[in-house]
Amino acid sequence: GESVDTGNRFVGTFMGDHAKTAIGTMLNTGTRVGLSANVFGSGRPSKNIPSFAWGLEGQRYDLDKLLENMNTVKGRRGQELTGAERELIKLRFKEAD
């Protein structure tokens, strides 16, 4: 949640695993999008979008729906969400409280 001087003149967006944005979402340079955040809504997102964010109104992704969606996305790639991945996501979700 804090800014870090990278020493670079140009820096793009930092996207966490399984994070998504709506079509046409404009992110500022240096924006941090947390793990499994789902960015959508009207207005420009902040530069620090927390993990498990659901939209721009400060709501949080439902954990069961998140795990279901992650499994669906992995299934499209011929993969399956492992038990270890599920436990890691649950742990990170709990830590983000």
Protein traits:
7 strands, globular, 97 residues, three-stranded parallel sheet, alpha/beta, 2 helices, single chain, two-stranded parallel ribbon
Structure summary:
This protein has helices at residues 63-76, 83-95, and strands at residues 14-15, 20-21, 32-33, 38-39, 48-49, 53-54, 59-60. The chain is of the alpha/beta class and 97 residues long. A three-stranded parallel sheet has the order 1-3-5, with no helix packed on it. It has a two-stranded parallel sheet with strand order 2-4.
Span between N and C termini?
A: 15 Å
Global structural class: alpha/beta
Strand order of the largest sheet: 1-3-5
Task: Estimate percent helicity.
Answer: 25-40%
Total number of helices: 2
Low-confidence stretches: none
Walk me through the topology.
Blueprint: E1 14-15, E2 20-21, E3 32-33, E4 38-39, E5 48-49, E6 53-54, E7 59-60, H1 63-76, H2 83-95
Parallel strand pairs: 1-3, 2-4, 3-5
Antiparallel strand pairs: 6-7
Summarize the structure in words.
The protein is α/β, with parallel strands linked by helices. The chain is globular. The chain has two helices and seven strands, in the order βββββββαα.
